[in-house]
Hints:
This protein has helices spanning about 30-40, 90-95, 130-140, 145, 160-165, 170-180, and strands at about 15-20, 25-30, 45, 55-60, 65, 70, 110, 125-130. It is α+β, with helices and mostly antiparallel strands. The chain binds zinc ion. Zinc ion binds near residues 101, 102 and 104.
Amino acid sequence: MQSQQQSGQPHIFQNQVVVFSKNYLPLARINLKRAIVLLVTGQAESLGFGSTQQWEVRSPSVVLQIPEHIRLTSGNPERHWKAPPVNRREVFRRDNHTCQYCGSTKHLTLDHVIPRSKGGTHTWDNVVAACQRCNSGKSDRLLHETGMVLRTKPKAPIHPAFASQFPKGVNAFAEQFWKEQQPVDT
Length: 186
Ligand SMILES: [Zn+2]
């Protein structure tokens, strides 16, 4: 057991905790605050595993031991998470402020892939960022009538706890994690 830190020091919240899936696959590093939320809401449990560093977090009514590793108790972390509303800000953020047809980053609008006039819904899988030119060029036609192609298939953004942690994907994170666990040869 290594040294414990007391809360009251704000920087304790900058410590990071590794989240494992229910199947013990290391998923991502998240900050201590998010780990606490997962633990106190029962979405995750402590995982006694190798290193036993813990952080002690005190509130007036409770003392929490936050371990370095936690494991999700649910098979599907996104089940507990509601996707953000479909609006300009969230869609532009998901689409990286880029027109999903031509890649332009200027004069962005929201486009319904299947136009609303043809029964298209205002949902994550039917709304994309599109520049004004593409949007008005497409008008209220269906994609196959225009020859335009989507750069990526639109879908709801993934859990924010993990989104920023997956620049290289889950497998890359797992690989790197296990590498770090190995003793260093000199
Ligand atoms: Zn465009």
